[in-house]
Specification:
CATH topology of the largest domain: Nucleotidyltransferase, domain 5
Radius of gyration: 27 Å
Strand content: 15-25%
Number of strands: 13
Bound molecules: iron/sulfur cluster
Number of helices: 18
Shape: globular
Number of domains: 3
CATH class of the largest domain: Alpha Beta
Largest sheet: 6 strands, mixed
Strand order of the largest sheet: 1-2-3-4-5-6
Length: 497
């Protein structure tokens, strides 16, 4: 019988087939992507910072995670010696083992503390902790209290990071309430580990809950292209159809109740039909004032704040691109990219505001794509720099949202499929323009690449700098192209203010 770590147990709770594949067909698991690696690195860093809250502990971290014997032995000895705090305390019992981030004695009570990099307790955290409690209890060291230590989203950095970055939430009752479930599940998964053939499990909502499963490319191979799952906002209804044997969108019965957006997508697929509500687009665009400022921020969102005055996971702008288009269709490009070194002791947000002041005139609409993002960032800047609040508020009042045209489905092209994002709209309307040709082709990669330089306090190398500038520029140039396309639609190009 195989032993179960915490992550294997969680896999088995999500789906027995997932756990079996991890054991017997690991070659099917795709390599870690950069975002997951980054998440692990952040988790590791946060785990170390969490020690600030319970300092001067003894560290039982194993030198080799495949051999826990030293760590198990040290934990036992230190517990028997009454050591106050142990980091990475290890326990094993039955067919399971676990490592606990922090074990702490507090006025005669034994506290188990598991550190998470989220800002609240999630259901799957409770399952993690329940397994840990089960193993500790079986090993003879049941904690008196169990806590999750997670990020305090009200924390505002001021100088060095302090233990106030974390907050403790007690989950003892929930964890104890799950003990029967854990015991039964461990028995079931123990039997699963002896199975020589793959268990039969149908695909379902569990394939993405609580985590996207790594084996979807394998289990979902039979799901056809343009399946009911690709129809916009179908949710659980897609599963109803799929389970009735209706797999392709085209097979959905005529009388099946669908929303207007779903009908548009379906007609786009069946008849290659484009939809355009020209009067709505015309009215919308005619309210915009020249010169038009096509504008986009890029941000970092570090779990551990890198700037004084910012909170965990706060979106901090580090870059923008701006295309300005006058009524004669003359276009000018402006851009700003903060130096990563400015995040150590400098004032990159203030520098950004000063550049905004230079690049924005006093009149003309500011065109964004999903304006809530830019509006929120400008509001946060106004809050942080009250002396610039009037200027920033002035920008906010001029903002319009190109996304509305596609979100409201005033225009729909079949190539957009179920998305109204600019990454889908641009290639649908301009097949020669695609983000896929760029070395940085999405906001997350841009953000992570830049944050890496900030955390290492190093200048951007020329290649990364160029890639970031090209990516952000394409975001605003895409808006210029899309605007031109809409303006030239029949009936949409009336006189504007
Ligand atoms: S894709 Fe779904 S069915 Fe397949 S292993 Fe993952 S969770 Fe289980």
């Amino acid at each position: 019988m195989r032993t179960l770590s915490k992550s294997k147990f969680i896999s088995g709770v999500q789906c027995p087939k997932k756990l079996w594949l991890e054991w017997y067909r690991p070659e099917l698991k795709p390599p870690l992507d950069a975002a997951t690696e980054k998440l692990f690195a952040t988790g590791h860093e946060i785990g170390k910072l969490a020690w600030l809250k319970f300092p001067n502990g003894k560290d039982a971290t194993p030198a080799d995670y495949k051999n826990l014997s030293v760590s198990l032995g040290n934990t036992k000895i230190w517990l028997e010696q009454g050591v106050e705090t142990i980091y990475e305390a290890s326990f094993s019992a039955g067919n399971a083992f676990c490592m606990l981030d922090i074990l702490h004695r507090n006025q005669g009570e034994l506290w188990a503390i598991e550190v998470k990099n989220s800002t609240s307790v999630k259901d799957y955290h409770l399952m993690d902790a329940s397994l840990q409690y089960w193993v500790m209890n079986e090993a003879g060291f049941a904690p008196d209290r169990f806590f999750l230590m997670h990020i305090n989203n009200q924390y505002i950095r001021k100088g060095e990071i302090t233990s106030d970055l974390f907050t403790l939430t007690e989950i003892t009752d929930e964890v104890i309430g799950n003990q029967d479930f854990v015991g039964d599940k461990l028995k079931e998964l123990g039997q699963l580990s002896l199975m020589e053939t793959e268990p039969e499990v149908s695909i379902g909502l569990h394939c993405s809950n609580p985590f996207g499963c790594d084996f979807q490319h394998y289990c979902w191979a039979h799901v056809p292209e343009n399946s009911v799952f690709e129809l916009t906002r179908m949710g659980a209804k897609a599963w109803d159809l799929f389970n009735q044997g209706i797999q392709r969108m085209e097979e959905i019965p005529e009388d099946y109740p669908l929303s207007d957006s779903q009908v548009l997508q379906l007609r786009g697929l069946k008849f290659n039909e484009t939809y355009c509500d020209a009067p709505a687009i015309r009215n919308f665009l005619n309210a915009w004032e020249y010169p038009l400022h096509f504008f986009d921020f890029e941000t970092i969102m570090p779990a551990i704040p890198v700037l004084d005055g910012t909170r965990p996971y706060q979106q901090v702008p580090f870059q923008y691109s701006l295309h300005v288009l006058d009524e004669n269709q003359n276009r000018e490009h402006f851009e700003f990219l903060a130096s990563p070194e400015a995040f150590s002791g400098g004032n990159p947000r203030k520098n950004l505001i000063e550049e905004l002041k230079k690049d924005f005139g006093n009149v003309g609409s500011i065109v964004t794509y999903n304006k809530s993002f830019e509006v929120s960032r400008l509001r946060e800047l106004a809050e942080a720099f009250p002396e610039d609040a009037e200027f920033l508020q002035g920008l906010i009042e001029r903002i319009v949202d190109l996304y509305d045209v596609f979100r409201n489905r005033w225009f729909y092209h079949p190539a957009m499929k179920n998305s109204a994002s600019i990454k889908s709209v641009l290639p649908a309307l301009f097949p020669n323009f695609s983000y896929g040709d760029l070395n940085i082709s999405d906001g997350m990669t841009a953000s992570d690449s830049y944050l890496g330089a900030v955390q290492n306090c190093e200048a951007l190398d020329l290649e990364l700098k160029n890639n970031l500038l090209k990516y952000c520029e394409l975001d605003t140039y895409a808006m210029v192209l899309i605007y031109g396309f809409l303006k030239d639609l029949d009936g949409a190009n009336d006189e504007r203010k």
